[in-house]
Amino acid sequence: MNKPTNPTDWKGAAMQKRIAGRYAAERRFKFIGLGAVLLSGAFLAFLLFVMVGNGARGFTYTNVAVPIDFKAMPLTIEKARLSDADADQVIASAGLADIVDFAADEALGDGGSALISENAWKEVRSAIKDDPALLDGKTVFELPTASAVDMAAKDGAAGALGAQVDALEKDGKLSTGIHWPFFKSADATDPAVAGIWGALKGSLLTIFIAFLIAFPTGVLAALYLEEYAAKNRWTDLIEVSINNLAAVPSIIFGLLALAVFINWFGICQASPLVGGLTLALMTMPVIVIASRNAIKSVPPSIRDAALGVGASPVQVVFHHVLPLALPGILTGTIIGMARALGETAPLLLIGMRAFIGDVPSGICSPSTVLPMQIFLWSDEVDRGFVEKTSAAIIVLLVVLLSMNAFAIYLRNKFEQRW
Amino acid sequence: MTQDDLTIADPKMRAEGVNVFYGDKQAINDVSIDVGTDLVTAFIGPSGCGKSTFLRSLNRMNDTVASAKVTGRIELDGEDIYAPSMDVVQLRARVGMVFQKPNPFPKSIYDNVGYGPRIHGLAPSKADLDVIVERALVRAGLWDEVKDRLLESGTALSGGQQQRLCIARAIAVDPEVILMDEPCSALDPIATAKIEELIHELRGKFAIVIVTHNMQQAARVSQRTAFFHLGTLVEYGKTTDIFTNPKQERTKDYITGRYG
Amino acid sequence: MTFNAAALLLLIAGLALIGWIAGRQRSNLVAGRAGTKLHSRPQYHGWYVALWLFAPAALFLAVWSSVSPGLITNEVLANEAAQSLPSFGFERGAILSDARSVALGKQDAVRLPAAAPLVQPYADAAYKYAWIGIAAMLALALAGGLYAFTRIKPDFRARTRVERTVMAFLLLASLVAILTTFGIVLSLLFESIRFFQLVSPMELLFGTNWAPQSGAPVDDTFGGIPLFWGTVLIGAIIAMIVAIPIGMMTAVYLTQYAAPVVRRWVKPILEILAGVPTVVYGYFAALTVAPALREFAVMLGIPNASTESALAAGIVMGVMIIPFVSSMADDSINAVPQAMRDGSLALGATPNETIRQVLIPAALPGVMGGILLAVSRAIGETMIVVMAAGLSANLTANPFASVTTVTAQIVKLLTGDQEFDSAKTLAAFALGLVLFVVTLLLNIAALRIVKKYREAYE
Ligand SMILES: Nc1ncnc2c1ncn2[C@@H]1O[C@H](COP(=O)(O)OP(=O)(O)OP(=O)(O)O)[C@@H](O)[C@H]1O
Ligand SMILES: [Mg+2]
């Protein structure tokens, strides 16, 4: 063992070469790391790019100008009835649809009625209801085109349809405008009149219910666990439950809701109420965990000070700890709510995937939610729905990102160091 | 400060006018010092005076602190270690370091010691590595205690054994200088005695620089002592002189325990 | 007259407010009369009265609104007009609910003629039970309020009582978590047992043919192996092959190399990636990734290439999991003491040698825990596989082929017909039970490992 050690020859060629190799490995490694980061960023960028690229067009729609002369083709109807509750039915049975089709054929040439949306006459109907005087004369209406025509106008198309659309375009009869029905109406089978408002309102109602239940329950549970709970087996059980619930797959909550809320309690199926209950159970653990962290970060000195001036333990918590922890609690809650807002799987199981053509009127009426609308539209064969799907995704992402941004803003604004 | 009686003919390391900054804050102010090849040099001084900072600039460990900046000149065998041509990986192999808290890797004892030689390619074969590991452990005085359990985790050893393992780890790459930053402060007196004994034995084979808060320890293990205060080198000399006949008032106050 | 729980809740809340004011007034009054100081401040007396007024009545309201529909139906069924109803099944339910809708004014006229004679009995019964409920509720509220009101004395410890009630509420809130867990376990178990009376558990766990059909004989059509394999292939293999290296390297780069500025920008980007709803990933997988992969497979001449492929679902799921893996790895690497890193660098190791040979081995338990959690997430993920992986139960290792997963089948089984007792619906719960047990075990194991690891470095 005592052989003399000749000092390492650091300057030797072999050693220099080896070192160069090690530095090359270092650069490679760092490069791979950077690559991984860039790759994640690129995924996000690509996803957003695809969605925005497809979806931006979904916010607009192609209309065609069709003059309708009600003097030549009178709609036999008493104007007084236009303000009645059943005006819609009255107008429909007076044959407005046929008049509009006829006008389209006349204005756009043979087969012109096929170029406008089958729901185009409803636009005329609401215009007439707004202004009965239209019935006395000739007006040019900007009517929504059929979905295929809209696609052809946006993408170009081959064949007869393409030629027809080109001709219309040359005549200046086509125009593109913001697709208002997209923001104002509920689902429909015709892309020309399908909208997200029904789903969006369903989402808002659902989230509202979920918040009403999950927020107080979660905060109170967190207060109990953090401030009062004795260290015993019950408390352990509660903690284990909460931690596991936070990691249970969301679809399991759907099964629970189906078995308990719908089949056992018989709460109205497919409604924001049952959806909100389901999402509340799912979100509550998240809120509890976030709230506990926020409560933990309130320094004990504040509790001691309050106890010192004679406050009872309950007063300490509700007057001193809770207000200080509130920003953190809210941040966690908003993030949890954003997650619930994007959730689809559990709601599939409680009937919210049905086609709902009306905007929901209350928390017990059948409804769908925005992510579900995206799912439903993604299955539609009609090509017009592709861009509607992406447009709905853009709306959903904007809502979610603003919620998250608000949460981050809250966190930064109220972040406090004691 | 007179240098005549302690001029070192052929210093292993030499620092000239070294300043170290953390951001805007200056932690070391114009320090010049020579480290002898066959000597143990002790750095003493009150907490926060910059001993660790200066020690870490001797093997460029300060490079790992983003805000740290070193100016002045530090030489190893006459070569500027902050020169672009100096390779930091080799520098650290030549100037080893032992930390305040034992920090064995969560690997086997064998792999802890073998880590350095492996990454530097010092052992062409397994047999060579066996030899290097054994020699390092022998030199660190740990061989007899661990020779039967080389494959156990290094973190399973006692604190004192862990620290000697870290010394063995540093020795295994055959460095020229070993820097020790309070190597005994986390150990009990018996383990401390063992390390001090070890330093005695290693003296002459390596240039050793040790930071310590323990005056007696500095007196026992070192031949040269440097006293730092508020980032400046107040006094540097033979250990016997510093402890028996300090030239500076501040040194005297410190070693007699009047502050610090 | 119907039983509107929300309005009634508002009514008793209003009563409680009156009780609060009255209790406060009275406590001041009795204190003034006795010339002593109150033990508790007046508002606590107010709260005491309000609680006694509100809590029993609200509790009754909750119980009543869940049992009264059943009572009403029973009453209607006892009526002569109900004797002609079909004895069982879907039609009977439809008639009853039709009659109910008309009786409660949700619908103008009956849609099923058979429901017509039931409308009046329904309305009568609903009316009767609504009044019984309201009367009982009001009686309870008043009794509670009066009881509390009479107890107000200067030395009455209202605050203690109120605070005890508050504590009870806190405890109740935290019990919701346990209740949910039990609810999940019981509902899954209950339906699964009914399923296992039809199909043996062995068949579900080890059978290799999955082809459930309504009304068909159940033999040999509920073999779960193809589903389990599909789940593992997508969630535990393909997704992890994507997520682990990218997530780990991202964490390594961010913790070891990136400047603080870069970290500040990249972390929110990863958070966005984690916040994108799964339905969006699913759509992305189905719309963009799957067709591209199919073309690629066809180019390579791979047989069975399908537009719904395990690979498309797995890759996109992997991307979804990246932020999760990277944040777990980030935490684990950060938990390794700085001294470990310094020790390695001081020996002359390069950063990448330090990372690969010291930091990652030291962080490995934490990273493993994180990966287990990630797997548990991936196998429970639903929308991506529903939209991109397909529904055909193939037992294949070809990643370009279509496979199906446990979650996708649960959705499929429960979104067809709504007959609740068929073997198909029950099978969904049995699959749910398997999924729940597996993810639970993964989570528990992961949390154990991570906790141990944290302790090791404390
Ligand atoms: N990473 C750093 N960033 C900023 N300032 C630092 C850093 N490390 C040390 N300092 C500062 O530099 C000065 C010297 O610190 P140093 O650790 O060198 O002192 P020391 O003499 O080793 O003290 P001790 O005896 O307590 O170990 C101190 O004021 C310290 O606060
Ligand atoms: Mg120090």
TrEMBL record, chain A:
Pfam entry (one): DUF3333
Membrane topology category: Multi-pass membrane protein
Molecular function terms from GO: phosphate transmembrane transporter activity
One GO biological process term: phosphate ion transmembrane transport
SUPFAM superfamilies in the record: MetI-like
Cell compartment(s), UniProt: Cell inner membrane; Cell membrane
Keywords: Cell membrane, Membrane, Transmembrane, Transmembrane helix, Transport
Taxonomic superkingdom: Bacteria
Domain ABC transmembrane type-1 span(s) in chain numbering: 200-407
Cellular component per GO, a single term: plasma membrane
Principal location: membrane
PROSITE patterns assigned to the protein according to its UniProt record, in alphabetical order: ABC_TM1
Transmembrane segments: 31-52, 204-225, 245-266, 273-291, 321-342, 389-410
Family assignment from sequence similarity: Belongs to the binding-protein-dependent transport system permease family. CysTW subfamily.
Protein name: Phosphate transport system permease protein PstA
Native source species: Sphingopyxis bauzanensis
Recorded name of the encoding gene: pstA
Automatic annotation (TrEMBL), chain B:
CDD domains found in the cross-reference section: ABC_PstB_phosphate_transporter
GO BP: phosphate ion transmembrane transport
Keywords: ATP-binding, Nucleotide-binding, Phosphate transport, Transport
UniProt xrefs under Pfam families: ABC_tran
GO MF entries: ATP binding; ATP hydrolysis activity; phosphate transmembrane transporter activity
Domain of life according to the entry: Bacteria
The ABC transporter domain, residue ranges: 13-255
Signal peptide: none
A cellular component annotation (GO) from this entry: membrane
Statement: the UniProt record of this protein carries the keyword Zinc-finger: no
PANTHER family from the UniProt entry: ABC TRANSPORTER I FAMILY MEMBER 17 (PTHR43423:SF1)
Protein name stated in the entry: Phosphate ABC transporter ATP-binding protein
Organism: Sphingopyxis bauzanensis
Automatic annotation (TrEMBL), chain C:
Superkingdom classification of source: Bacteria
Main location: membrane
GO molecular function per UniProt: phosphate transmembrane transporter activity
Database matches in InterPro entries: MetI-like, MetI-like_sf, Phosphate_PstC, PstC_N
Keyword annotations of the record: Cell inner membrane, Cell membrane, Membrane, Phosphate transport, Transmembrane, Transmembrane helix, Transport
Bilayer topology term: Multi-pass membrane protein
A GO CC annotation given for this chain: plasma membrane
Localization terms from the record: Cell inner membrane; Cell membrane
Annotated organism of origin: Sphingopyxis bauzanensis
Name used for this protein in its record: Phosphate transport system permease protein
Family annotation (Pfam families): BPD_transp_1, DUF3708
Family indicated by similarity: Belongs to the binding-protein-dependent transport system permease family. CysTW subfamily.
GO terms, biological process: phosphate ion transport
Span of domain ABC transmembrane type-1: 229-446
Coiled-coil ranges per UniProt: none
Membrane-traversing stretches: 6-23, 44-64, 129-149, 169-190, 227-248, 269-290, 310-329, 358-379, 426-450
Function: Part of the binding-protein-dependent transport system for phosphate; probably responsible for the translocation of the substrate across the membrane.
